[in-house]
Amino acid sequence: MCLRRHHVSRPHNTGCRLIVAACQQAYRCPRDKAPLSVLGRLTMHLTQLNHECLLHLFSFLDKDSRRSLSFTCQQLREVFLDPRLWNLLHFSSPCQLRRDNFVLGPSLRYLTICWYSSRVLQVCNIEDWLKSSFQKDICSKHESLVSTFLAHVCHMCPNLLQLTLSGCGHITDQDVISVLQSCRKLRRLCLENCVRITDCSLREGVVAHGNGLEEVKVDFCRNVTQAGLQAVRGNRPRIQLSAERSADMIPDSKPEERVPLRRTLQKVLQFS
Fold first, then answer.
1. How far apart are CA 112 and CA 166, in angstroms?
2. CA dihedral (175, 117, 95, 54) positive or negative
3. Helix or strand (DSSP H, E) at 8
4. Which terms under GO biological process does the entry name (predicted)?
């Protein structure tokens, strides 16, 4: 049945507007262009729609709109909590992971966490031993958010097919390895500008547990080297591997690692 208009009682007016907007997008028929006679005949209560139809309509709303609509009645709350509604999740900052406007479940197939912010470059991507106390204080408020969230994904989303992490400066090799161990159906892994990711993610993660992987991208990850990339190509030749700039960037080196090198250079110059 093609629905052009829904009518609900006054307490549900907000939800009604959201559903009408979803209907217009779903059926691509603007309400103001529909004949008045047709609109009159199709008037009905929103709660008369069955669960499957409501799921379809909810799928056209963003996370915040779904959450707002779920507070209008128990029936819509059940739709919001249905794991089948949440097969795709996209977050534009780690802080969004704190909100309760989404549901994790076995239906999740595509997960993206992208943080394009100056804070990533100026704070999160700096080596820990070079950060000021102010920068450390900023990081302390969000540094464990993505890792904690990925731990929940490992337990609740075994059917994940695609994972994209971009600008997540605090995730570690163990986070990636845990996801690959738990989400055995993962087909595509994309890591971009994740400074703590090293060859360990490739050797102990992709090589050891990437049986189902078809594509791996590690772009602008400065601590990934050619040795790690060659390990993947040699052991997992079927994986489509790409690494833009990663193996050509200057990796991190702790202060104590630089001292022997400096002394060696001094000796070479002294006796040359």
1. 8
2. negative
3. none
4. SCF-dependent proteasomal ubiquitin-dependent protein catabolic process
Closest CA to 102 of 151, 145, 58: 58
What is the C-alpha separation between 226 and 210, in angstroms, rounded? 19
**Which among 165, 176, 168 has a CA at the least distance from the CA of 202?**
176
Q: Which of 45, 64, 65 is nearest to 53 (CA)?
A: 45
Q: What predicted TM-score, i.e. pTM, was given to this entire model?
A: 0.77
Could you count the other beta carbons within 10 Å of the beta carbon of residue 192?
A: 19
> Strands 110-114 and 215-219: what pairing?
unpaired
pLDDT confidence of residue 126: 82
pLDDT at 160 over 50: yes
The closest of 135, 146, 205, 199 to 170, measured between CA atoms, is: 146
Q: Round to whole Å and give the CA distance between 155 and 173.
A: 18
8 A C-beta contact, residue 127 and residue 252? yes
Contact 105, 85 (CB under 8 A): no
The tens digit of pLDDT for each residue in 182-197 reads 999 999 999 999 999 9
Let me know: does 195 contact 169? Beta carbons within 8 Å. Answer: yes
CB atoms within 10 A of CB 153: 21
